[in-house]
Design goal:
elongated; single chain; 2 helices; 19% helix; 61% strand
Length: 208
Amino acid sequence: VFTLQTKTGDKIMNKLVRILAAMTVVFAFSHAAFAGFHVEPFVGYSLSGDFDQEVGSSTLNSGDYTSNGPQLGARVGYGMLGFFGAVEYELSPMLAAPDDNDYDDVDINQTLMGVALGYEFPIAIRAYATYIFSAEGKGSLDNVDPVYRGSGIKLGVGCTELPFIAINLEVTQLTYDDVESDSSSFDDDFDSFTANYYTLSVSAPFDF
């Protein structure tokens, strides 16, 4: 009887080991299928936006601007089960046209760096948010040429119905609260420079 019980216990143990081994293999393949490096280059264009510059008592280019321009960048990070987290880098040369005709157009070459988190839903829709911890905008003004520095956020939704690419609509809000220029009076009078604009972009998200 003891021998029979031992053999029965060994059979049960062997089955359990096989089941655990099979579960481990399935989990490993599933994990490999849904996790990996997330790489997402993107290109876009700012459709509508405005810049608002406040320069204290100085009237030098203080006011509202309508902005537009192309954008180019990439997100690189990690993706798993529809979620992704990535470092984002973007170059955005913008043209800001003042609402007041007394001022000239301003070219602002923006360089943005941030951390993005997002999720791709099973219904071909994605949503993501980026905290922009480093925003630098190099402006071209007469005898000033300021370099603005600040931070901001970006929110986006996209459609992944097409193969290999996503079509995204984004809103970006930036606040430049620091400036360095060729004019000490401009720097002293500078209060803030804010940017709010909408962007239509096309990206190619890949998980390896």
